[in-house]
From TrEMBL:
<dbReference type="InterPro" id="IPR036179">
    <property type="entry name" value="Ig-like_dom_sf"/>
</dbReference>
<dbReference type="InterPro" id="IPR003598">
    <property type="entry name" value="Ig_sub2"/>
</dbReference>
<feature type="domain" description="Ig-like">
    <location>
        <begin position="86"/>
        <end position="181"/>
    </location>
</feature>
<dbReference type="InterPro" id="IPR037448">
    <property type="entry name" value="Zig-8"/>
</dbReference>
<dbReference type="InterPro" id="IPR013783">
    <property type="entry name" value="Ig-like_fold"/>
</dbReference>
<dbReference type="InterPro" id="IPR003599">
    <property type="entry name" value="Ig_sub"/>
</dbReference>
<dbReference type="InterPro" id="IPR007110">
    <property type="entry name" value="Ig-like_dom"/>
</dbReference>
<dbReference type="Pfam" id="PF13927">
    <property type="entry name" value="Ig_3"/>
</dbReference>
<dbReference type="GO" id="GO:0032589">
    <property type="term" value="C:neuron projection membrane"/>
</dbReference>
<protein>
    <recommendedName>
        <fullName>Ig-like domain-containing protein</fullName>
    </recommendedName>
</protein>
<dbReference type="GO" id="GO:0050808">
    <property type="term" value="P:synapse organization"/>
</dbReference>
């Protein structure tokens, strides 16, 4: 796949582009799958990604540097122009389950480890929808900082309400996404929550369980005469 335009160039032995310079080299009885670009041009420079649809998905991104003489052909020249690096990965700082009190501020910081070109954009999703910074709700802002070591995107949601609970996903333009679950508490205390998959709370306090245990003992204990 060409990351610049998310164009799937090849899959298996099939080619999905009208540009005849692209093709697949797959030696018989081997696990090698090579992308071939003939007559490489400067416009071919950029990130290409190989994906294996296993569970979990395996992917490897490469950067094609085509700043030399244009018009050369063959896989050997292409392969000598590749700089291998792991696919960039977004990370949201902190635990996977975030607890905030109603009326306080939700603060989520997403970092992207960039090995080549920084992401041109970082989108935030709340559930299936893109976070709308111009919504009538107000109080939603984004702070983005790009440095040599990577990109940081900080989402701030002030005066959190119960409807602000849910899944939040950071989606960079050229990196794998990251997600967290936000729980807005209406007077509950995070320490009293069970930190399960999505942090469901206990139904009974410890003192309640103690009272129930005493009642059961009285009901089932033998009568002493």
């Amino acid at each position: 796949m060409r990351k610049r335009d998310l164009h799937i160039l090849t899959s298996n032995i099939f080619t999905y582009t009208g540009d005849a310079r692209f093709g697949v080299i797959h030696p018989e009885d081997s696990d090698d799958w090579n992308l071939r670009i003939e007559y490489v041009q400067k416009r071919d420079a950029g990130i290409y990604e190989c994906q294996v649809n296993t569970e979990p998905k395996i992917n490897m991104a490469v950067y094609l540097n085509a700043e030399g003489n244009a018009g050369f052909s063959g896989c050997e020249t292409l392969c000598n122009s590749l700089l291998l690096f792991p696919a960039a990965q977004a990370t949201i700082q902190g635990p996977e389950d975030v607890y905030v009190k109603k009326g306080s501020t939700i603060s989520l910081t997403c970092t992207v480890n960039v090995h080549s070109t920084p992401p041109s954009s970082v989108l935030w999703y709340h559930g299936p929808s893109v976070v709308d910074f111009d919504s009538p709700r107000g109080g939603i802002s984004l702070e983005t900082e790009k440095t040599e070591s990577g990109t940081t995107s900080k989402l701030l949601v002030t005066k959190a309400s119960l409807v602000d609970s849910g899944n939040y996903t950071c989606v960079p333009s050229n990196a794998n996404a990251a997600s967290v679950w936000v729980h807005v508490l209406n007077g509950e205390h995070p320490a009293a929550m069970q930190h399960g998959e999505h942090g469901y709370s206990n139904r009974f306090a410890p003192s309640t369980w103690a009272v129930l245990a005493c009642i059961l003992c009285l009901l089932f204990s033998p009568v002493i005469r």
